[in-house]
Amino acid sequence: MTTLSIPSPRDIIGPAERGETENMVLNMGPHHPSTHGVLRLVVELDGETVVDVAPDIGFLHTGIEKTMESKTYQKALVMTDRMDYLAPLSNNLSYVLAVEKLLECEIPVRAQTARVLLTELTRIGSHLVWLGTHALDLAAMSVFLYAFREREQILDIFELVSGARMMTSYFRVGGLAYDLPADFIPTVKQFIDTFEPRVDEYEDLLTNNPLWLERTVDVGKISTADAIAFGLTGPALRATGIAYDLRKMTPYTGYETYDFDVPIGQNGDIYDRYLVRIAEMRQSLGIVRQAYDRLIEMGPGPYQTADRKVAPPPKSEITHSMESLIHHFKLWTEGFKPPRGDAYICIESPRGMMGTYVVSDGGPRPYRVHFRAPSFVNLQALPHMARGRFMADLVALIASLDPVLGEVDR
Amino acid sequence: MDNATVLNRLRDTFGAVVSAPDERHGDLKVCIEASRLPEVGRWLRDEADLQYTLLENLCGVDYLGRLPRFEVVYHLFSFQNAHRLCLKVGVPEEHPVVPSVTSVWPTANWHERETYDMFGIVFEGHPSLERILMPEEWAGHPLRKDVPLGYEEVAFTFNEDRIYAHKPFAKE
Prior knowledge:
The structure holds two protein chains of two kinds.
Chain A: H1 9-17, E1 24-28, E2 40-46, E3 49-56, H2 64-68, H3 73-81, H4 88-103, H5 109-137, H6 141-162, E4 171-172, E5 175-176, H7 184-206, H8 210-216, H9 224-229, H10 235-238, H11 246-249, H12 270-298, H13 315-318, H14 322-333, E6 341-349, E7 352-360, E8 368-372, H15 374-378, H16 382-386, H17 391-401, H18 405-409
Antiparallel strand pairs in A: 1-2, 2-3, 4-5, 6-7, 7-8
Helix pairs in contact in A: 3-4, 4-5, 5-6, 5-12, 5-17, 6-7, 7-12
Chain B: H1 3-14, E1 18-22, E2 28-32, H2 37-46, E3 54-62, E4 70-78, E5 83-91, E6 97-99, H3 108-119, E7 122-124, H4 160-166
Parallel strand pairs in B: 2-5, 6-7
Antiparallel strand pairs in B: 1-2, 3-4, 4-5
C-alpha cells in the first residue's frame, strides 16, 4: 500500500532544478488539447518513457462550495450544473437528493421516473463526449462526428424540458422544475428508436480496429485493489472486473425497480474501460426504455412534492387560497429551512461516485456543501498507471479516465 | 450489515474512543478521538466482516463559534456490505492538527490537501501537504467562515502598493 504514492509537481521540478536528474522534465498543459480542460501535468521523461507524472490542478477553481453557502438551497442548485458540465443532471440529482434527505420529503413516482430517464440520457450523452474525444486523442477523427450527432439529439431533449442545452438545472428540491412538455414523449421515442444501431456503428469503427487495439489493449492497467486504494470509481473501477455500481448497491430514485446489468471488464486496461462504457450506453438505453414505458403508463400527474414548505403551490391555487399565496411568497423570498443536521448522499454519475455532503444550521442557506467529485479522485490514479509507459500512452490514459476539469477544481 | 452491528463492533474494540453515535436519515455517524484515527481506520479497513476499503469522501467543516471549531468528516464505504459509515473528528482552532490517513487509504492524499488548502487543517504524516486548488502564494484559507466573500480590487497607480503588499504574485 505504501508504494501507491501520488507525487506533487514540486517532487518532480525540485530535483530537476537542482540538476539531480538526467531525465527531462516536460510541462504538459494547462492548455493542451488532450488534457480535456485546464489540467497541467509535470512529466519526468527518460527518452520517450514516463518516469513519473504529477497532475497540477486548480486552474479552474471558482469557489463553488463557498458561493453556495451564500445562496438559498434552491438558488445554489445552479452552481452544481457548472461542475461536471458534461453531466449536469447527475450533479443536480446528487445535490437535490442530499437536500431532500435533510428535509425528509417524499417525491412523486412520476418525478422520480423522469429523473431516472433524464440521468440515464445524461450518462449516454457524457459517454458520447468521452468516446468522441478519446478517439480524437488517438487520431480516429470520424467517431467524434458520429458521437456528437447523437449527443445533439440528447441535448435537444434537455432543451425541450428545461430550456437549456447544458446548464439545465431541471431537477429541483422537491421534484422537477416544470412538468414534462407534451413533445417530450415523441422526442424520446425518436431517440430510443434510433440510438441502438448507432452504438453498433461506433463499435464497427473501433472495437476490432487494429490501430485502436494497439493503443489501448494492456495499456494503463490497474488492479482492483489499487483502484480502490486510489478511490478510483465508475467505469474505470468496473473495468478491473468488479461490478461495483451504486445504482445496484445503494439504490436511489427507485433504481432497484429497473432491470439492468452492470457491465464489467477483465484487465482494467484502457480497452476494457472502452468496452465497459460502450456496454453502459446500451444498458442506459434499456433503463431509458423502461422509464419511458412507465411514464406513458402513468400519464399526467404531479411532478413536485405535495409538501408546500418545499415546493410552491400550483398557480391555480394561488388565485383563491391565501395560504398558498403565503407559501409561494415565503418560498421565493426566503426559501425553505431544512432542520439542523448534515446529510450525505452518493450517486453513480457517468464518471464514478458523485457525493454531496450538506450541512444545515437550520437557516435558509446551506451552512456547508461539499462535493465528492469523481474526476478529482480518479485523477489521483493517473501517476500510478502512467509510470513506465510511453508519453503517447499518457494521452490515451487521460482520455480513458474521462476527467472533467470543471468538476476537478470546482 | 446494519448500523447497530457496526456500532457495537466499534464500541467493543475501541470503547470510549467512539462517541456521539447518530443514526438520523438512516446513516451511521460517529465521533472519533483524533489521535486514534489511523488506528481505527486501519481496523475498519482490514476487519474481515467490515472491510471499509474505500475512503469515499473527506472534507472539513468550520463551525465558527462552536468548540471545537473545526470538524473533519470521513465517509467510508464497504463494497462487501454496501454500507456507509461516517467518522467525525473535532479539531480545535488553536492547534488544528489531525493525523493523516494516507497510510490507510492512499486516496486521502488529495482530499487532505484540499482540506488543508480550504481550512488550514494540518494533516500530520501527509507526504506532501501543499495547497492544491488555490494559488501557492494565497494567504488564508477561503472556506473558513471568517473569510468574507470578497472581490478582486483593481490595481491603479494610487493603490497598487497596498494591493501588491498582500498579493505579491499579481505583479508578474
